[in-house]
Amino acid sequence: MLELAILGLLQESPMHGYELRKELTAKLGAIRAAISYGSLYPTLRRLQASGWITEASATAADVEEAPPLTSRRGRVVYKITADGKERFAELIAQTGPETYEDTGFGVHFAFFARTDRATRLRILEGRRRKVEERREGLRDVLSRAAERLDAYTLELQRHGLDACEREVRWLEELIANERSGRAPDDGGPRQDNSPPPPGQSRKEPERP
Amino acid sequence: MLELAILGLLQESPMHGYELRKELTAKLGAIRAAISYGSLYPTLRRLQASGWITEASATAADVEEAPPLTSRRGRVVYKITADGKERFAELIAQTGPETYEDTGFGVHFAFFARTDRATRLRILEGRRRKVEERREGLRDVLSRAAERLDAYTLELQRHGLDACEREVRWLEELIANERSGRAPDDGGPRQDNSPPPPGQSRKEPERP
DNA sequence: GTGGCGATGTATCGCTCCGATACATCGGCA
DNA sequence: TGCCGATGTATCGGAGCGATACATCGCCAC
């Protein structure tokens, strides 16, 4: 998942680790806590070994005349390669079981602007199915096993059930919007060729 | 976290691995997917090595007195020890940063019936703080960095923000109930000294 | 009766990711 | 001048997951 997110961000512009983490946090803040460096750096190394990204030290220009005695460690700027872009396209389009899990879904959704509509629909519907299953599981527990559980546990289940129901409704809306050709926050359908979907975004919405 | 959950469940009755997983799924279904055996068995081994639980093979004789749905199979039944109960009490009362994380909070909450009121309040307030911080982070992104993000990413943030606001409200209610001495789903206050939380539970609510 | 099949049951392996920790540089300001 | 918080790179141990393997049980179709 991290691999996908990193490739997606580097596609927008080259970055060094610290920056990458901040952008990652901003983009994925809704679905997970800040990424750990213990995940980030090893993943960057792996991506580099696979040839999806390259390293371009920023020291040369920055420090050129005064790097002397102290072991000045330059920032390492990572840049996506052509292979990396291919890899991203492959990852973003392929859907497996974990695509519908909380984190997996969130990451895929965060890059929907770079995903084609058919894939978007597939993912939204897969996620809906997943959340519906979870919802049914919670309903079962609440109706069939309620007497075995204490009041706090039941309250937890109720809260979880509520969250599931809300998410399903949210997904239904998104699916309906996709089918009718609207962007997530547009007010209505578009049948003309005016400024495409993005609402207030300055990023290109569909195939970049 | 798994350690705490297993000790908590085994406190109610001895169980074998498969059963434990099912109970775990029922109890924690609202906060996490089914536990993996790749986590469960190694943890059981660790708990056993530490002396918190003991292994009691359920063969012939055992099965006859407790004949649920199973038969005489080479199952391994785990049972909590006195040390294990102490360990559980220690874990359930101690709060660290991860106590307020999604999973950590959920597990602690699921055993609130075995937690004293002061600790319950501490945890609920810590969690509220955590979720509020998350909420502020999302608001910041939505107000300050909105133009940098595409419509889908923004929609994700909005949905996350909504979930945060809801959870804070939920926590406020729970905190108010705790302060006024009500169980999570009771209809009114209690000013006598009858058993604190249990609602309709048949389980003993406080120190067993 | 017997063959298959889904539920029950125990177990391991490789992997991803996290949290803690260490260390170094930078700009500002007291 | 000295301190501090933000920036920045990096590793280590461990928790938990998903895939996989394998064995037994109860039951129903053939």
From TrEMBL, chains A, B:
Composition bias type Basic and acidic residues, residue spans: 179-189
A single MF term (Gene Ontology): DNA binding
Pfam families: PadR
Region (Disordered): 177-208
Gene3D superfamilies cross-referenced by the UniProt entry: Winged helix-like DNA-binding domain superfamily/Winged helix DNA-binding domain (1.10.10.10)
Coiled-coil residue spans: 121-148
Entry keywords, A to Z: Coiled coil, DNA-binding
UniProt KW Coiled coil keyword: yes
SUPFAM superfamilies linked: Winged helix' DNA-binding domain (SSF46785)
UniProt domain Transcription regulator PadR N-terminal: residue ranges: 6-90
Protein name, UniProt field: DNA-binding transcriptional regulator, PadR family
